[in-house]
Amino acid sequence: MPKSVKKSSAQTSISRFFSGFNKQANVSRTSSGIKPANAGHFGLAGKKKLPSNEEESGNKRAKLSHDTEDDDTGCIFVCSNKVTDAGTAGSRRSLSSSTLLRLKGFSCQGDSGPPEPGNWVGAHSRDPGDAAMGRGTSGREEEEDIKGENSPESIAKGQGSAQGLNLRQFAKPGSGGVGPAKKSPTETSAPNKRTKSIYTPLELQYLEIKEKHKDVLLCVECGYKYRFFGEDAEVAAKALNIFCHLDHNFMTASIPTHRLFVHVRRLVSQGYKVGVVKQTETTALKASGANKSAIFTRQLSALYTKSTLVGEDVNPLLTLGALEEAEDVVLDAPNNYLMCVSENWDSKTKELTVGLVAVQPSTGDVMLDCFKDGPPRSELEARVLRIQPVEILLPSDLSQTTEQLLRGIASASVQADDRIRVERLDSSRFEFTTALRTVTDFYSDASHQKAGEADRGAADSHSLSSIISLETPVICCLGPVIQYLADFNLQRVLTCPSSFRRLSCEADCMALSATTMRNLEILCNQTDCKVRGSLLWVLDHTQTPFGRRLMKKWVSQPLKSATEIRARQDAVAEVLSSEHSALPSVRALLCRLPDLERGICSIYHKKCSTQEFYLISSTLSRLGRSYRPCVLNETAAKTGDKTQLFADLTDFPVIRERKEEIQAVLSDILEHRREVRRVLRNPSLDYVTVSGQEFLIEVKNSLSSSVPSDWVKVSSTKAVGRYHSPFIVERHRRLLQLREQLVIDCGREWTNFLQQFGEHYHIMRKAVCHLATLDCFFSLADVAKQGNYCRPEVLEGESQIIIREGRHPVIDVLIGEQEQYVPNDTELQGDGRRTMIITGPNMGGKSSYIRQVALVCIMAQMGSFVPAREATLGIVDGIYTRMGASDNLSRGRSTFMEELLEASEIVSRATSRSLVILDELGRGTSTHDGIAIAYATLEFFIRDVKSLTLFVTHYPPLCELERVFPQHVGNYHMAFLLNETDAHADDEEARPEFITFLYLLTEGAAARSYGLNVARLAEVPESVIRTAALKSKELEAAVDARRKSKKSFLEAWNIEDREALQSWMQSNS
Question: Which regions span the lipid bilayer (predicted)?
């Protein structure tokens, strides 16, 4: 027999109700384990007190239904479906059908019973406000399920939505679905009497939306919280660390409404596509409509991914609270580019053409490009690393080589937040005919819309023709991007083709390959891929987010026009030398600016909040007095109250009319107060408001007999009762309807207002771009002043690099004042000595020196001052580097293969105006092969390419090229001091020399590399070092012997006289 369960007050109520039934039925009811569902739901958060039977029956007067029911206004009972033994099962079968029907009347929406311990996924949320996320549905949602479950409207809607759906894919495994699948007793739900379905109307509504958006993690608004269902709930519980439990047929998890911003961004950062489903009806308007007994209608209101975080739900400004705090905070939001890639293989020419479109919906930045690429896909890799997209659109039939490249880049980061999200689209969308039709339709509609805009400058009459004239691969990318952004309602950013920028670096910018950007650590360091330790980290002292984004573009895209470079240098010099009083005030203004670029773009998309709009508009008003935000009520804008947002309603007649109707209803209710005073004989009586309930008539309990019988009792205490007269009930209902209609009207007018403001988007965006440029000039001036930089002289048409006392910009900052950086000179002339062969001991500073030269060239051509005493540089069209040693297992390439592929790429792309840096080429193979490849490659650059070249090597034979090309090649080494204290030791006790690095570039080749000194620094065991030193001496002796033998043979070979030969043999015997 099962354990006896102590009766609760709820069981007592049931027992009294069924007092006329037989004893066996009572035993069955007791053993069935009836208990409150809420107690199970709140088991982790505390017990929920149930009202007593006397309290439930004490008040028989009718009560009004409220928008949100309190959790303690009633009890929810569930029958535990656990069958412990055969005896229990038998007792359940003894209940009559009428008894079961009456028992069912006591159960509401908790038929599935309290969640089992095994059904909870995740732990307590880390966020404060998430402690109650595992609790059941809101009062409003419980009311929906109770009312809507048996209504004709919900029956028709539920049956219609269930047609054609594979319901089992959304339900918990084993929880049922369509068909006679067997379920465990704990997962059995009673079917709806009307629909004959085990799914509640809310679940059917969710299934209908989910069928249309299968790849979206849906967040559904249910009263005062948002809920996840099914597999979405389990994913959200794991990602957000919140509770997940079984409720009816689905696993469910929930988050509070005010935490939606936080949790949506957390899910998106982990790579999910998140959809927000909101209620489209209000309580008062629904009550007066035709479907008042149906469930609240809902629809997908917003979609978010890593590149499309634009909207009121995810607005960063909303997290700052007060506006004063928002203005003091500079948002550090990274670039969130969406990139689309397509390929076009020409079978005749055997060439691959790649099309690329990159869009940043949050700022309106659009870039496109079309280029030819080889098997290594170095051109595509360089562009991906330069743009650093957060999301990539790819066709399903992408080539394997490109697939491997993008997969490797996308998954390079260990942290999921830093990985690139990849969206796969059907390859048919990338077909030229389909893409062209999409593009044509989009820009035809855009041209008609622009014709009526006030901003005539933004309208491009030739937009369609200019778009159609783009390359085929670009159009094949642009079509899918338009379709994809249309799902997010962000396609407006593409309506102005005149603002599109070409990404190709061939025309206006220095060529920086992906390998070069990694090796030189331009945007991030190679240790942990963070900004600290990179060139961008040194130069970026900007004050605004949009200035920070522009600085990143400048660093990654140095200029090739001497005129533009000098213009930037003049601006930096002006900031440094000018004593104008306006500059400090402008700098102070920049420090307090929010992200205007993203703000005006959010307004352009009509997705901004009132708080964000006020912040942006008030900021623009400080920048220029031509625009004043006096049309807005400041207090309402800060709090987000759209019903009081517009200070002047002259241009908003709909809102003015609705407010007049509300005022008329309020006047009627206030006038009715006279009648109430007369009836109750209380001249001083006034309405009271308690717990949000307005216009309550408070009467002492001792005078309750004077209350008319048709008045409705709303609430009561021990001393007074609170009522609504029939007139107030009717007028209050009308007032609620008008207020909710006012909210809808104000929302519609707000959207129209944003539309009018957005018509000036392109003009305001240009103004913000100018502010970003000014911010970058201030930043470069600060860097030049703090680092004691000089202004480099840039020469047009010259091929030379002359640097006096140059320093590595990053190392110079990292060491700070603790150590003294050793400066070095550089002199390369295109028509003179254009190649430097650099040798010297390991860790002597060779790699740092060649990086220093390259970074100085980049800084000079981006318009910055440089860390040197003096610098004169010609325009460099590209910097190509081959440094480091690493394999590429994902592409099946060894270390040596990677070296040769990078060297081959440099050979094919470098010109006489390029800077080529080769660091220890050939070390990935045998010594003889490595020397041969390094020698031949360097000779090719000296004789054929004639580029400015820095070649680091440990191969002594390469130094002989100075003798072959004395006018164009020079040998150099990093100076050091040699401690030869062990020089007189025996061979058996040989020890490596001690080296003191001087880090000073000196003419001449180094005789040795002194690698054993590095072994000592690496704390290799002393016995190993001694053995290595002994072996090194043996190998050097053998090499010297071979060298002497070869020299002797050549000398003997050149002797023709017999006597002379005999004399030579005697002298060398």
Answer: none
DSSP H helices in 427-581: 432-450, 463-468, 472-487, 514-519, 535-539, 545-556, 562-577
Q: Give 995-1036 pLDDT, tens digit per residue.
A: 788 889 999 888 777 777 777 777 778 778 778 878 777 777
∠ CA 890-891-892, rounded to 5°: 95
d(CA 974, CA 959): 14
Structural element, H or E, at residue 950 = strand 948-952
**pLDDT score recorded for residue 844:** 84
C-alpha closest to that of 880 among 380, 510, 539: 510
Burial of 530 (0-12, 13-18, 19+ CB in 10 A): exposed
Name the residue among 141, 146, 149 with its Cα closest to residue 224: 141
Nearest residue to 877 via CA among 916, 826, 847: 916
DSSP assignment string, 641-701 = -GGG-BS--TT-HHHHHHHHHHHHHHHHHHHHHHHHHHHHT-TT---EEETTEEEEEEEEG
Residue 1041 structure tokens:
């012997």
Distances (CA, A) of 62 to 66, 601, 724: 13, 53, 11
Average pLDDT over residues 932-954: 91
If you count them, how many residues does the chain have?
1069
Please choose, from the candidates 65, 148, 146, the residue with its C-alpha nearest in 3D space to the C-alpha of residue 108.
Answer: 146
Half-sphere exposure (Cβ direction) of 696: Cα atoms closer than 13 Å: 19
Give dist(CA 917, CA 910) in Å, integer: 11
**Rounded distance between C-alpha atoms, residue 208 and residue 163, angstroms:** 9
Distance between start and end Cα atoms, the chain: 114
Per-residue pLDDT band for 429 (boundaries 50, 70, 90) equals very high
Structure tokens at 808: 């590595």
CB 415 within 8 A of CB 387: no
Q: Comparing 70 with 476, which gets the higher pLDDT? A: 476
Would you list the DSSP string of 800-869?
EEEEEEE--HHHHHHHTTTS----EEEEEETTS--EEEEE--TTSSHHHHHHHHHHHHHHHHTT--BSSS
| Position 807, amino acid | R
Q: Bridge-partner residues for 716, per DSSP?
A: 721
Q: Which residues of 264-279 are buried (b: 16+ CB within 10 A; e: fewer)?
A: bbbbbbbbbbbbbbeb
- Give the Cα separation of 386 and 552 in Å (integer): 9
Phi, psi of 52 (to 5 degrees): -75, 165
Taking Cα atoms as reference points, which of 206, 201, 61, 79 lies closest to residue 143? 201
Q: Are 339 and 421 in contact (CB under 8 A)?
A: no
Q: Evaluate whether 522 touches 810 at the Cβ level (below 8 Å).
A: no
130: left (phi > 0), else alpha (psi -120 to 50), else beta? alpha
Quote the CA–CA distance of 535 and 879 in Å, as a whole number.
15
Among 168-172, 496-500, 670-674, 762-766, whose mean pLDDT is lowest? 168-172
Tell me: pLDDT of 650 over 80.
Answer: no
CB atoms closer than 10 angstroms to residue 384 = 23
pTM: 0.64
Contact between 753 and 298 under an 8 Å Cβ cutoff? The reply is: no
- C-alpha distances in angstroms, 400 versus 406, 427, 892? 10, 15, 13
Angstrom distance (rounded) from CA 314 to CA 293: 33
Element (H, E) at 911: none
In the three-class reduction of DSSP (H, G, I as helix; E, B as strand; rest coil), residue 122 is classed as coil
- 142 vs 159: CA distance, rounded Å: 21
8 A C-beta contact, residue 183 and residue 174: yes
Rg (CA), the chain: 39
Q: How many CB atoms lie within 10 A of CB 821?
A: 17
- Quote the CA–CA distance of 830 and 851 in Å, as a whole number: 20
